[in-house]
Every structure is written in structure tokens, then in C-alpha cells.
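can u pls check wat happens w/ calcium ion
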Amino acid sequence: MTDYKRFLNDAIVMAKSAGDIHMKYFRSSEFNLQTKLNDSDVVTTADREAEKLIISIIQEKYPDHGIIAEESDPLHEDREWRWVIDPLDGTTNFSQGLPAFCVSIALEHNCNTVVGVVYAPYLGELFHAIKGEGAFLNGRKIVCGCKDKLSESVLATGMPYDKQDNPDNNIREISQVAPLVRGIRRMGSAAIDLSYVAAGFLDAYWELNLKRWDVAAGSLIAEEAGAVILPIRQNRNFSILASSPGISNLIFPLLLPS
Ligand code: IPD
Ligand code: CA
Ligand code: CA
């Protein structure tokens, strides 16, 4: 049987080292903010340094594994074992001095996620999951929420980077959902959003046009905590609803394309 624990322990070591890099730059003037596709799409020295470190550890320990990481070209992405890395999820928060940012590391076997780690160093929160073995926050088992009324539910969402150019930009969905729920949050980190659904801190989360590295680890953590993950678009990268089971049927129809 495959020893997923060993992969998990290595992923945790990598995540903590990346978190140390985040903290070295957080609220400093040294992180050199740059834009990528547009002014809403940002990267810093902390993103790049954390990714470089994670990739170097994987290449040393697992030279035959593939790697998909946000800030680099894919490496052997067709391999049986593949790491999917967001070295800093929530870079906009990070660059503003806001605390909701994390590193997200997933390991896929034949395209199925088997290990996921999300570590938010400023918050001191480490989420992990191994396929079939439940989800954990700082070593304690977590389960998703059990509400069945939208009026009592607190949801999170986000706005896609192409919001200025693409009319499918979540404004319609937010205006449909907002009057029906207790509250909507915009945390600014997809991996934290998914992990918070897992822990029951959020009752559901949806977002359009995410990337594989935004959702790989967090989706496993949410599923392992009992949450339901449903696609809400077929043609917009990773567009998903992650929800506690009691409200997924109530929220899902409100998020489908018009
Ligand atoms: C972003 C965050 C944000 C979400 C964006 C993501 P990044 O990731 O997860 O919450 O709304 O869609 O791309 O750029 O900070 O790694
Ligand atoms: Ca991200
Ligand atoms: Ca990122």
C-alpha cells in the first residue's frame, strides 16, 4: 500500500518552509509587488521564493514526480504522481497587509488528489487531508457545517480576474444570493475559503474561473470533511460550489449560468 503519510509529512514541511518565507516579507516594504495579466493579478517576491523552495524540495525527494505550480512552467505534468502548488494564495491580501493568505500543496496520483495541505502562517492554521482519512485543522479532525436554511448560512465567494472583460463575472450570482443568506464574505484566498467550509466556519463557498492550484488541496480537505463540491460552469476553468450538504441543493440552482 502507498505510504501517503510520508507524502503528507513532506508536504507539511514544504508548507511550513513556504510560510516562513511569507512571514519574512509580510507587512514589510521588501516584497516587490508586480502585476501579471492585469492590475488585479499580482505576484510578489514571496510567491516566487516560496515556489522555488517547494519545487527544489520536490525535485530532490521525488525526481520522477511532475509539478504544476502557479509561477512556473509545468514540469513533466503527465507523470503518474504530480504536485499542484499555489505558493501564496491570497497575494492581494498579502500585499495589503491583510492576514488571510496561505500556501496550498496537493499531491495527485493519476489525476486524483490524494494529499492536500493548506497552511496560513499568520493565522497559525494548518489544514490537511489524505484521501479517505478525513480532514484536520492543526491535528484535530474537522467536519463541515450542518445547516439546512439559507437564511442562517454564511457564504464566501470571490470575483474572477477577468471581471472587467467577461460578463460572467459573478455580480448576478452575488446579487441573487445576498438577500437570501445571513452574510456573504470575500476572504480573498480560495484555499482558505475551501478549508473554512471544511471546518464549518463557512457554510458554503463558490467562485468562477479558478485555477487547478487554487482548488486542488482545498477541495480534498472540504470533501474529506463531508462537504459537497459541484461544478457550476463547464467552460470557465475551475468554477465550483463547495457546500455543506444541507444547503447545497438550495444554493446550486442560483449559481448556474443564466
Ligand atoms: C486568488 C485567490 C482569490 C481568488 C482568485 C485567486 P492568488 O489566488 O484565491 O481569493 O478570488 O481567483 O486566483 O492569485 O492570490 O494566488
Ligand atoms: Ca491562488
Ligand atoms: Ca498564488
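Residues 47, 70, 86, 88-89, 91 surround calcium ion (ligand 3) (CB under 6 Å).
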